[in-house]
Design goal:
single chain, 279 residues, alpha/beta, Rossmann fold, two-stranded antiparallel ribbon, globular, N2,N2-dimethylguanosine tRNA methyltransferase, tRNA processing
């Protein structure tokens, strides 16, 4: 099924202005049972939570992502965002409204979230286009889908449909999307990664850290820093196999969860061998 902005729609796969959505499974945070629509506001942006998982304490990480996205658009003149694991879509809405993204693709595995994603993004586009010229207001601004995250990213790479910013808000130590995300980002673009695996960062699951990130982590009193270095190191290793360079732009640790997030700029070129170390 599909949905064109401005029309009633079922809670199924949705498309905006004729762009097709997809339906299948994907890797994301667990879907919650349906609840009543809950009105929320984050940094002045209204949205509905619906049956999605939403953590207000993570707003700082979203703030940083929006700020860098807006700066990227200011510097390059364009911003196309792929939000791979959208949840209720608060990040996608803020990219559209506050970073003034030209286009946002919001994807999530949970088909129960398609309706709330369509509602939030359609309202966001209406608000975003109020200040635009009529011609610009008719441009496609968003798309939603319920596709497998890896399939989605690899499909974009195969079609040479590259994005300026790819946001991967994954759960636990899931790094399966790392390679596909690097394949789908533009040269000079940004990848925003996540880990919530505090056990590996704290050295309590060293073999899991080795398997997921390529680093054997021992217990230390500075697990917050190790968790971020572990996440960045895994990305550097994956990028090196693709003749890409990773430049960390910023990192953020939040004690709730815990949540490790890092924004990386992806550039073509061989890995700089003189910039290696042991943590």
């Amino acid at each position: 099924m599909s949905f064109l902005a401005g029309h009633s729609h079922p809670a199924m796969v949705v498309q905006c202005r004729g762009i097709g959505g997809f339906s299948s499974m994907a890797l994301s945070a667990p879907c919650l049972s349906p609840v009543r629509m809950l009105a929320q506001e984050e940094r002045g942006v209204p949205f509905q939570v619906g049956p999605a998982f939403y953590r207000r304490q993570s707003s700082l990480a979203r703030d940083l992502g929006i700020l860098l996205a807006a700066l990227h658009r200011q510097q390059t003149g364009q911003l196309r965002v792929l939000d791979v694991m959208s949840g209720c879509g608060v990040r996608s809405v803020r990219y559209l409204l506050q970073a003034r993204a030209d286009f946002v693709w919001a994807n999530d595995a949970c088909n129960e979230l398609m309706e709330i994603l369509a509602l939030n993004l359609s309202q966001a586009q209406k608000a975003a286009t109020e200040d635009f010229e009529a011609r610009e207001a008719e441009l496609e601004r968003w798309r939603i889908s319920g596709e497998d995250a890896n399939k989605l990213l690899l499909g974009c790479a195969v079609r040479r449909e590259y994005y300026d910013l790819i946001d991967v808000d994954s759960f636990g130590s899931d790094t399966l999307c790392l390679g596909p995300a690097l394949a789908a980002v533009k040269h000079g673009g940004l990848v925003y990664l996540t880990s919530t695996d505090g056990f590996s960062a704290g050295g309590h699951r060293p073999h899991n850290a080795l398997a997921s990130y390529g680093g054997f982590v021992n217990p230390t009193p500075y697990a917050n820093e190790i968790g971020l270095r572990m996440l960045i190191g895994g990305a550097v290793r994956e990028a090196a196999t693709r003749n890409m360079k990773i430049v960390p732009v910023f990192s953020n640790y939040s004690y709730h969860g815990p949540v490790f997030r890092t924004m990386l700029r992806v550039e073509p070129g061989k890995w700089l061998r003189n910039r290696q170390g042991i943590a």
